[in-house]
Amino acid sequence: MLNPPVKPGFCFRALTADGQKNVAVNVCGHNSIGVALTKSMDPAPECYLDEYGLDNLIVPISVDAPLQCDGKEYSYITNVVVHNSLIERCLKGHRLSDHYITRLTSLAIDWILQEYGLKLDTRSCRLIHGKTYVDYAGKNAEQIFSEAAKALERGIKRGENSSDSDVVDPLVSKFNMENKCSSAESKHAPLITEMPTGSGIRKGFLCNARLYGCEGSGECNQPPHDPLLHIPKNIRKRCQVIDTRQSGHVLSTVAPPRATPEKDGKPPITQCPPLAEPDEWKVESLEYGEKSVIIRLLPPPNVTSMEGINLEATPNSIEIDGTKVRLSRTVAVDNISAKFLKLSNKLLLTCPFV
């Protein structure tokens, strides 16, 4: 059984990006092309196509290679084939015919560029009124339809031998999800451009090559540390800046007097600094009560607790670290108590009487 022929829909013409060639595009229909799909890869319902058109749908599409013509009117002619259900909605009787014509024209321009590198100027795109199909030079419409149907039939037979997964995956990767016309116009664009086949960076691109010279990259080479960098340059030029961090004090510019030797040749006598007096305890107060005497002592600066204190007591005196305190009354040596007050830094001795 023969396949039905390709159904003509509409045709439009457009100039190439360089404006030198005129291209005619035939938008046709055939049932071998898949129907419009939703994002979940399910066939779009007929009611959705009638109500919303091609918005948010995946449209399967097939593009023939542009054929160069000898005629003066068009330089190239190509066919773009979609499902018949979309071509039927491009007729004037349908309420969304303008929407379908606009969207299919945009898809045709995008896929002609992707498949064959032929960029068309969207601003010069015009419908060819009075025609539904532009014939190739030397061929009538019936011959072209039969050849297109045979090509589609061969594609269907090849696809039947593959699994379902092999059919779905190419559709997802091939169909364009964003069907927008590009308004940018490139100057002096070639008619057919070669699509890139490889990545920009390939394996082994650094073989027999060096990123830096013999001295390295120099990224970590920083100027030496300057501790006086916070001082402005004009002040550093006019004033003499002395760094006193090494000596710990401000250097004096006055030189010390030179020591003159004695006339008789004896070496000068150097005076030794006086010895520091040993730290001693000081008695702050002596309070005699009816039953005891309270002694408050101020410790040396190096004493901050009871640790290391040597306390000796006799009935008439108390000696602490060499400091002796004489008492006017006899005290009970075994009942003497001592307490160090850290807040006031004092030693409190309570000595009960005998």
TrEMBL record:
Name of this protein: WGS project CAEQ00000000 data, annotated contig 153
Specify the superkingdom.
Eukaryota
Report the InterPro entries cross-referenced here: PIH1/Kintoun_subfamily, PIH1_N
Q: Which residues form a coiled coil?
A: none
Stretches for region Disordered: 254-276
Give Gene Ontology CC terms. cytoplasm
Pfam families of this UniProt entry? PIH1
> Taking every annotated instance into account, which residue ranges of this chain make up the domain PIH1 N-terminal?
7-131
According to its UniProt record, which protein family does this protein belong to?
Belongs to the PIH1 family.
